[in-house]
């Protein structure tokens, strides 16, 4: 029962931090330092990635009409015409594939090595602070600019690739925040806050599914009843919390910028560094 409660806590933290630009991986690594699951190292390595599937299913639910290209249409009467492909959504997915290329190459080439090298509290703390400062600086600079891209369809393949390069930084350094890196990149490249956030959500779908599939294949298909329960609770709680957080964030950014998340990151990074310096 204790492990189930721990997994519930991990799921809640994942659901909150996956979509807010504060680094879900960083928070999960830090949480694991203080609330450790009493499971095998192989299971925990898989769990901390696959739990993200619950979070990504929230995006699929909330943005289904915007991401599913195979839809039916009506001719204005009660008659529903046969299925058809929405070209703008299909093109959007091609751009998302382009944006995934930089991180995919690095992950396949050196994913395990980078994970062993950088997945620790020092890297997380430093990147929390650095990216927090960047958020504040970029938002101050962005106030003087008018967004050039206010629709997903206006994102070019070149812009998509460059956003993917920003995402690459998050793939290498935990604590960066994948959503934080792509949102900062989007703002710099001229995307409005809402479109930068939306594209970040869509970009997460293949990234998280791909990362989870790799971890699941490495771990295998044999689970104990406890392992299956822990994984299920983590995913379900991450899903439910993610639905609430995504709705909150999309409403929040219509009237506010991201600077508050920058300040949060800086404070958290300093607290973590100080805590480990005192107690380790």
UniProtKB/TrEMBL annotation:
UniProt family annotation: Belongs to the UppP family.
Annotated GO MF terms: undecaprenyl-diphosphatase activity
Keywords (A to Z) from UniProt: Antibiotic resistance, Cell membrane, Cell shape, Cell wall biogenesis/degradation, Hydrolase, Membrane, Peptidoglycan synthesis, Transmembrane, Transmembrane helix
Location(s) in or outside the cell: Cell membrane
Record membrane topology: Multi-pass membrane protein
Reactions catalysed according to its record: di-trans,octa-cis-undecaprenyl diphosphate + H2O = di-trans,octa-cis-undecaprenyl phosphate + phosphate + H(+)
Role according to the record: Catalyzes the dephosphorylation of undecaprenyl diphosphate (UPP). Confers resistance to bacitracin.
Other noteworthy facts: Bacitracin is thought to be involved in the inhibition of peptidoglycan synthesis by sequestering undecaprenyl diphosphate, thereby reducing the pool of lipid carrier available.
Annotated protein name in UniProt: Undecaprenyl-diphosphatase
Annotated organism of origin: Jutongia huaianensis
